[in-house]
Amino acid sequence: MITVLSGGTGTPKLLQGIKEIVNPEELTIIVNTLENDYFSGVYVSADLDTVLYTMSDIINDELWYGVKGDTFITHERLEEIGCPELLRIGDIDRATKIQKTQLMEKYGLAKACEIQARNMGIKSKIIPMSEEQSDIKIVSDIGELEFHDFLIKHQSKPEVLDVKFSKVSPAEGIIEAINNSRAVIIGPSNPVTSILPILSLEGVREALKNTYVVAVSPIIGCDAVSGPASKFMNALGIEVSSVGVAQLYEDFLDNIVIDDKDSNMESQLKQIINKVTITNTIMNNLGVKKNLAQTIIDSIP
Ligand code: GDP
Fold first, then answer.
1. pTM score
2. Tens-place pLDDT, residues 182-205
3. Spatial separation of the C-alpha atoms in residues 276 and 294, rounded to whole Å
């Protein structure tokens, strides 16, 4: 069994490569739920849905949000009748969210996700990190903001002073998945708002110490490939580089995968992490995604 820790952009890109070379039944994906909330009357678990769509090959992999070729009839009608939506939800995507909301209210999020994954023909196990509602606030120079207000309404522009999130309990099966895995892959997801929430779950860091862990850095040079990760890292006093990422995971990390462009960091990284793997990590086509996935799998002892 291989377990992957995932957010909703960088790691799903890698999952497109991993799913080509790993038996899907041998794969468990633990997904961040920090930003989950209700919007327009439906429960939105953006990272979970992105992973579901990625694993069932319908993801809009230009936006890393929603379904490829989706229509927006309901969204447009809602706007027309005076219900503007903060999130632009497509019609097919909304169907997933309506079903998840109904299933979740009956069975809880993990079971809802299991049913949806099965219905989408996915053979891998996809587990939300927690069944509990998280509370996340972005403390910025214009005040304390809800995560999606910061990201969408303010387009990640405000200066970030702090990122605060509540502690939640791990969903059933998470610690067991890590313990039963021959390796855990931490994908190149936002260290602060996608990976730290998973690492903050009780028992996760301890379990990772007893498992082979390889992480792909989402930072190249001194900036994130996309999104606000560098702002969040800065706000928490974490160096914005692969070194900063390594320091964050150093108590359990066995191997860090960094981009060719950062090869000059190798000796510094080797003082923190046992093994440093240098390769192309800019996943702009399936070939790169598969090569990166293969390099990671080959590095597992
Ligand atoms: P979110 O939930 O949408 O924030 O997505 P994630 O947390 O999964 O991913 C965001 C992170 O992915 C950002 O910090 C990016 O730097 C990283 N990322 C996106 N694409 C790539 C890529 O092709 N290569 C690498 N190394 N990192 C990437």
1. 0.98
2. 999 999 999 999 999 999 999 999
3. 16
